[in-house]
Amino acid sequence: MQFSYVLIDGSQVIEPTLELIKAHDAFLCVAVCANRTEGINKILELKPDVVFMHLDGLSTPDEDAIRLSLLSELHEFLDVMPTIIVLSNSKDQAFDAYQRGVYGYLLHPIDPNELRKCLFRFQKTHQALYADKIAIKSNGDYHFITTQDIVYLKADNNTTDFYLQSGKVITAFKTLKHFEQLLPFYFFRIHHSYVINVEHVSRINLGKNQCYLLNNEIALPFSRTYKEAIDTIIIRIS
Questions:
Q1: pLDDT of residue 17
Q2: Of 102, 146, 142, 144, which is closest to residue 122 (Cα–Cα)?
Q3: What value, to the nearest 5°, has the Cα angle with vertex 118 and ends 115 and 133?
Q4: Statement: residue 58 has pLDDT above 70
Q5: Which residues, at least 6 apart from 26, have a Cβ–Cβ distance to it below 8 Å?
Q6: 108-138: buried (b, 16+ CB within 10 Å) or exposed (e) per residue?
Q7: pTM for the complete prediction?
Q8: How does residue 18 score in pLDDT terms, banded at 50, 70 and 90?
């Protein structure tokens, strides 16, 4: 089971933070944002499980600065808030942050042990909330498939073909768009006809617009329309 996260960080030291979080395989980065507006837009679009938010200093005058007031704005639009983990250079805003319901408050430089404790605690309390199977009706049969066994999905008019790790193909009589909305966040649409499981991506060739799966055994095209999804996958793999 993986959980999606967005990192909102306008500092110049974002790479060390990303590397620390990426060491935890249960968490998948779906976006990195440099300011408040971009962060809010990505959260509303992607609905991540976790948001890491690096607070700007209180003296920063910019209206687009990353501050705790961002949480109030999210409450206006979301019925279910993501889990918020605050990153800060000082303890000054810790009390206010916890009053606003943040899950964790980590100081820079981030202690890997404190980050590990925070993420393990989140996993323990949220693991049971996420189903890892999907029901596929095909010719009167119901197939209950573990989502991690799905390599990719292919649209075929009003049907969808599920390609599994075993090599088996199951045809469902519903559209690709229907299943795209049901699948976990680690499935990405890369083409009008294809949705892939990022866990099975082994190579991406930007020159040929090809995405390779299962140790390069399968090659699928991706289109420019879905280039943002490819960029997100590259962040995960690199």
A1: 94
A2: 102
A3: 115
A4: no
A5: 1, 2, 3, 119, 123
A6: eebeeeebeebbeebeeeeeeeeeeebebee
A7: 0.67
A8: very high
- In this structure, which amino acid lies at residue 87? L
* Torsion of Cα atoms, 32 then 133 then 122 then 33, to 10°: 10
Reading the block at residue 186, the tokens are: 């680690």
DSSP H helices, the chain, are 14-22, 36-46, 69-77, 94-99, 112-126, 176-180, 227-237
Q: Which of 1, 29, 4 is nearest to 14 (CA)?
A: 29
Report the C-alpha gap between 128 and 18 in whole angstroms: 26
Which pLDDT belongs to residue 131?
A: 57
Locus of tokens 């209950």: 144
Residue 183 and residue 170 in contact, taking contact as beta carbons nearer than 8 Å: no
Question: Apex CA 32: angle with CA 2 and CA 232, to 5°?
Answer: 60
Q: Which residues does 12 contact at the CB level (< 8 Å), separation at least 6? A: none
Other Cβ atoms less than 10 A from the Cβ of 139: the count is: 8
DSSP 3-state of 158: coil
* Closest by CA position to 12, among listed 68, 64, 56: 56
pLDDT in tens, 145-194: 899 999 999 999 889 999 999 999 999 999 999 898 888 888 999 999 99
Average pLDDT estimate for 86-111: 94
Question: Could you tell me which of 219, 223, 229, 212 has the C-alpha nearest to residue 46?
Answer: 229
Residue 41 has what pLDDT? 96
Q: Quick check: helix, strand or coil at residue 58?
A: coil
Interatomic CA distance for residues 122 and 125, integer angstroms: 5
Q: Specify the amino acid at residue 210.
A: Q
